[in-house]
Each structure stands twice: as structure tokens, then as C-alpha cells.
Amino acid sequence: MTLLVPLLFAAYLVLYAFALALPPFPHAAAIEQNPLQQKPQYSLDEWLQREEDIALDNLLANVAPFGRNVQDAAPGSVIASPSKEHPNYYYQWVRDAAITTSTLVDLYADDPFDPLSSKLDIILNAYASLQDELQHTKNPSGTFADLSGLGEPKFEADGTPFIGSWGRPQRDGPALRAITLMAYLRAYNASNPSLWTSDEGPDWFKPLYDPRMPANSIIKADLEYVSHYWNASGFDLWEEVQGLHFFTAMVQLRALREGAALALAFDDSGAAAWYTQQAGLLEKFLPSFWDASKGHLIETLSSARSGLDCGLLLGSLHGSPAANNTVPGTPPYAPYSDEILVSLLALVYDQRNRFPINSAPPASPEGTSPLEGVGLGRYPEDVYDGYGTTPFGGNPWFLCTSSASEILYRVAAHLQETDELEITELGMPFWEALLADAPSFADLKPGSYGSKDGLFVDVLERLRSVGDGFLEVVKKHTDAEGSLSEQFDRVTGFERGARDLTWSYGAFLQAVRARGRV
Ligand SMILES: *[C@@H]1O[C@H](CO)[C@@H](O)[C@H](O)[C@H]1NC(C)=O
Ligand SMILES: *[C@@H]1O[C@H](CO)[C@@H](O)[C@H](O)[C@H]1NC(C)=O
Ligand SMILES: *[C@@H]1O[C@H](CO)[C@@H](O)[C@H](O)[C@H]1NC(C)=O
After folding, report:
1. Of ligand 2's atoms, which has the minimum distance to the CA of residue 281?
2. The domain spanning residue 302 has which CATH number?
3. Which residue's alpha carbon is nearest to atom 7 within ligand 3?
4. How much is the pTM?
């Protein structure tokens, strides 16, 4: 190990120098062929099937109890990465943990009687108990008494507060945690049909939701936090910028809408009315994130940044239920909304030209769409290279690249389920890019299309193939063992940043799940 690291680093420097010396990167693909890393040649389908198991195994390795990388962590904690130095990600972030756990809830809900689910059930219960403790742990963001402590973004793996200076508070965590635990509550309730009306019912539900004991009900406490603090400024999901953020607002809105429905189910009608009222205000406020002059959504209001951001994709994905909507009404800025689609297009254009590896020739000759899969990073101005900050240091991230494919698959699934494609002037740039060179491109104009139209059929086909293109990029940059770190190098394409990033695995699994519905 000690010998290998300097060797790899030297190899990296040579490759890097070689890459810099090249003319405008036409040979970036050739640089990928590193003899140190011979990978078997799998088709995308074969690889996805294999990688799905690896990703779940590596994700669970970072979750206590049972995880091999978290032997000393409190049961229920989800660490961001096993990396303890360069960089140190060995903490539990409320946001990352809730997002990861929601993937586990989905797996549990698929089949609560599967052997995996009995293990997941233990993990989910431990997660819930630990969240209760974290909510009540006094920390640098505040305390439970006025709920301010719920805005604390991260804790030590053993559940004690992290006291170093940090970008705090962050107001997305409680919303995401409520969404995850509400999904768990519904899944558990659905698989135990007599529980709701039985004598044990209240005992099981109380720690999650109890109108009379809000101080001891995790979901209720989070919903109170979201409903009282959603319009207050906080740090963004990348923990860098203070303000009001699209990602945060989207998950807060979803939490409030689902929370209102849950409150009604528990006869907590006063709370339901309050959550509904705040959700209505938040929904009216959300269009502030649309910038008509730029032609895309922006992640943070009044920010010096362009606003193009992978957080827009993540906000749409986590702010919109993937299936079986639990609250009536269409969520704003769902993956299939015009605003998200043109924002995705703008982000892809930016990142294609920004990163040398994205200029490599297309893998397949038919891959000529302007939307063709590329490595996506967080945002254009990013300077974090996975270890520190350097000018122009940003790289593509696995979780952003996977999220682009999830958006496209979810659009396809939505079209299949509704059998209706509405093309408007606003969305035209996206559809033009998607259908470039497709047989029906000439027919493209605003209007309504159904599954009998050639255009609809072409759109579905392209959504799936372009979505696959982004997963091909993930496949290309994954190492031979199937491990996913945080980033992959913009020049050499090799993995960099925190190893085995839990969120990289979760985002990949969610993308593959969405692909399965198409
Ligand atoms: C729990 O399930 C019962 C039916 O088994 C249903 O009537 C009730 O609304 C469910 N509760 C929630 C919160 O989903
Ligand atoms: C939310 O905050 C924004 C920006 O500070 C402000 O313009 C808006 O009026 C606030 N909305 C509500 C409902 O409080
Ligand atoms: C919605 O839920 C029903 C019943 O739980 C299930 O049969 C169906 O496949 C789900 N639909 C989607 C799109 O997941």
C-alpha cells in the first residue's frame, strides 16, 4: 500500500503532464487506456447488473450496524465515506444520511418479507432512534428547545456533536429526514395491515409521529422545523454559500406536502392546516428560482454564481416522489418540467466544454446528440478538486452524472404512465437537442403528442438512450473493483476525492432503479 500510493501518484503526474501537452484533447479517450487498470469489457446491461450488487454492498458497508467500514460508529449512522484523512469524510451528515436511507427504504418497500429486508428493518429502526438522539443533542447550530439545533449539518460518527467551524445551519436536512422517515412509516404500515388499528399501533408510530408528543416524534419535530424556518437563510447542499436555495426549497416543499397528508392521517388537523398553508407560501415563492433572462433555474438567489448547478437536478429528484405520489397534485419542477429540462441542457453544454474528458470522441458512432452523456460536476465555478481547492479545480462527480440519467429515465417513465407529451415553446431547446438527427425531428413543434405519434416514440427512445449515455460515463470511470469515489479527474478520468462515497452509490442505485421503470 505504502509503495503503491507514490507509484500511482507518479503515474498520475506523468499522465497529467502528457494530457496537458496534447492539442485540444482529441485523444482523451486514449489516455483512459491505462495498463494498471485493465477492466473486463461488459455491455452496459451486464455491467449495471454487476455494479448494482457492488454498489449496494459498498453502500451498506458505510452504514451501522453491520457495515464493515463503521465498526465504531453509533448504530444507525451513515457515514459519508470511510476516508478519514485527505479528505476526512468520516462523519454523518443529516442530508447525505437521509438520502442514502431513502434508498434503503425503497428496497425495504419493494419486498418487506425478503431476507434483505429483515436486515434493513434493523438498520431503519436504528437510523430512526439515532435521529431522535441527534435532534435532541445540543450543537453549534442550537438546541431542541427552539428547534434551531435541527439545522446542524453533521455529527461525529458516534453521534456526538461536531464542534469545528462549518457552514451552518443547513436547512435541507430535517426536510430530507422527514421525507425518508415518512416513506418508512408508510412502507411499514402497508406491510403490517392490522397495525394501524391494533393496540400496539400507537406504540410503534409514536416515536415517528404523535400529535400529542411532538417533542418525542422525529417526523413531527422535523416538520415543525421546516414549517417555521423554510424562509430563513442557510448554507447550500455543497456547504459553501449562504442564502435561499432551490434544492433546499424543493425538499422542504415535498416534506410539507407529505407532512400535511400524514398529519391528517393522524387526526392532527391543526398541524395539517399549518403545513398546508406554509407549503402554499413556499410554492408561490419557488418561481423566484426561475431566471428568464438566463433561460434556466438558478440554485441560489442573489448569488454571484451562474446558478447552473447539479443541485437543480437533485432538488427536482428529491423534491418529487418517483412513483405512486402520496399527495394529490403535481409537484412543481418535477424532472419532466420544462424548467428542469432546459436547465439540464444548459448544465450539460457547460460541462461538456469545461472538462477535457468530455471532449473525447463519442463511444458509439450514432451518439451524436448534443445531449450525449458527459461527466457532470457540481457547478461551473467549482474549485474543489476532491482534496483541496485549486483554480479551475472542479471535476465531474459520479452522483451528478448518475442524477442526469435519473432525470431522463424519470421523464420517460412519466410519459409512459401518462401517455402524453406536452411540448411548449419553453421546453423546445431541450426537445430539439434530444431529437437532433431523429427521424421525427422535422415534425417537432409545440403541441400534444401521444404514444401513436412517431415523435412520442422517438422521444421515449432517445430519453432512454441518452440516459444510458450518462451511465456509460459512470461505467467508464469506475475502477475495476466497481468502487465509486466522489469525483473523476477532468483530465485523466481517474477517480479522485473521498473513496467509496456513500452518496455516489445511492445516486447510482436510484438511477438504475428509475431505468428499470422504463
Ligand atoms: C396505514 O394503513 C391503514 C390500512 O392498513 C390505512 O388505513 C392508514 O391510512 C395507513 N396510515 C398511513 C399513515 O399511511
Ligand atoms: C421569503 O424570503 C424572501 C427573500 O428574503 C422574501 O422576498 C419573501 O417575501 C419571503 N416570503 C415569505 C412568505 O416570507
Ligand atoms: C404503485 O403501487 C402499486 C401498488 O403498491 C404497484 O402495483 C405499482 O406498480 C406502483 N406503480 C409504480 C409506477 O411504481
Report:
1. 13
2. 1.50.10.10
3. 324
4. 0.91
